[in-house]
Amino acid sequence: MKIEEAIKQKKFESERQKAVINLMYTNSWLSSVHTKCLKPFGISIQQFNVLRILRGQYPKPCTLSLVQERMLDKSSNATRLVEKLRLKGLVERNLCESNRRQVDILITEEGLILLKKASKVMHDVTEAMPLNDLEAIQLNKLLEKMRGL
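Predicted structure:
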């Protein structure tokens, strides 16, 4: 569906404005799709991202600052997300033995199992995206160019 139809707007100030609005609309749509995919697992997109970061470091623990640094959504509250995951038994927090001010965060076995299942669903959604590899490469280059402003 064209952005004009989706948001019921016929004119834009420029093609650049249209592109930005289209990007924002597509981000919202994609977030909604991912939210629906993760709902059966009882986790949010941000929690999924934290689990992926922790799995990437596994079996070594992560610090909260490392998690925050690597998160896709920089405005997310990493402390709150980690606590919610801890209450679900998906991560554990321990005081670092060498630095008592540091908290080590480690994904649990239960977290790894849930992440494996959720990642399969997310992979299937990504692979169903109606772009071929060359289009995906082109889109990636354009998005990276845009962020390089």
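Summary: The first strand starts at residue 62 and ends at 63.
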